[in-house]
Fold:
Amino acid sequence: MRKNFVFSFLTGILALSTSMSAQTFVMVDEDRVSPENEPAPVHPVPSERQLMWNETEFYAFFHYGMNTYTNKEWGNGGEDPNTFAPTKVPNPRQWLTAVKAAGMKGGIAVVKHHDGFCLWPTKTTKHNVTSSSNENAQKTNIPDSFAIAARDLGMKYGFYVSPWDRNSQYWGDGTSNYTNKVFLPQCLELAQFGDDQFEMWFDGATGGEQGYHGGAWESRSISNAQTYYDVPNLRDTVHAISPNCVMWGVGDEARWIGNEQGWAGETNWAMGTGEYGSESGWYWKAGESDAKATSAGWFWHSGETPKTAAQLFKIYLETVGRNATLILNFPPDKSGELPAADVKVLEELGQMMQTRLGTDLALKAKVEASEERTAGATRNYSVGNIIDQNKDTYWATNDGSKTATITLTWDEEQSLHYVTLMEYIRLGQRVKAFTIETSTDGATWKKCSTTTTTIGYKRIIPLGGSTSNYTAVKAKYLRITINDSRACPTLHTVSVF
Ligand code: FUL
Structure:
């Protein structure tokens, strides 16, 4: 090998002296030094901001604005600003405190919906809170108070700003005036409410309906959202101020999961589109599931009721537990606060999360693997890394090994409900098929019936086979078998509840 190297080296020098040849590069590649012996990434891989975004996992959506006072879901843009009349000063601190109790790590506030009414004193349009004569409207600045409350509560935050604007005279008028004079400046104003935003939400709705449009009352549409909204410029403008802000939807850095019912596919790749994604997608675009926690719409409507904690927990398992993030909508009412019934169900959900996913039994298990990757100079890939509570250390096999088993053993029989698996996605999403089995004696194994294909950022497997029932399986042993992977598998955490 060394001889080969010397030979190649000399050949390389000769080649270099005349021209840069392919041989030169082969030589360098052969002699690649990898002291840590880390597996090569399987592309595509997420950016740093996409990784941080994924870690937010479970966060709230707050639809509040003009529609709260008109009993509509989509305003037409011709609403009188005085209609926006909160009975108290809107209180984002109350919203965020309530969702934090359910275990949510952040929230996105709608600050402009399709009707174009802005919940902050923007310079871009008169159609904003300062034009309402209501004294509470005059004191409303949602992006400001939302960002301050989130920071105080140690939560992540961001804003929903609708690209489609049925109030603006410019929207869809065949020029670039709307994007340049209204939309980009609005996003810039919003970015300036904090350089620590985690997501900006750009809805895909693009018109076709009659709207006010400065009094024209026309049906307008646009043909290509990406070019019309100057998305590359939009991204750079926001990232220059808030570098970790993932541009959702139209912004193309994270994708809609493809339904509003709160579920993702059991097979779910962080590339491609829709509920299942695609293994062959060529860039990273993980799924976010947006779901309503209440019975009526995205906005508050009189008489609505929240779903039960058990229903919301099922949604959590079918989204966060299937490699998607969950943005769960709780709409503030006319007082600008979340109704008491919503606050109560959020507390119940928090308690359920704690009871069902709060005590990790893997931490007291013995863990063994069929294979461990050869350690590097300062990094090892031993199976103990999956229970060391450190997301930066991981277990891996050697290159070429795409199958492996991990076994957890307890001293005594346990009541097991869920297994959580997390891939080290910095190196790409890899696992294509796995199985989970349990045993009481280490000889006879019972296979869990859930479809176990992809893992990704996080997968939660209900051992009872159903996301609806809280069913225990008695076992002293639990075996995870990786059956297929795009390259050697890497897992940073395994938890058992
Ligand atoms: C949709 C919008 O049209 C709805 O009104 C809502 O905001 C939802 C989250 O996104 O596309």
In short: The longest strand covers residues 404-416. Residues 361-496 form a domain with the Jelly Rolls fold (CATH 2.60.120.260). DSSP finds twelve helices and 19 strands in the chain.
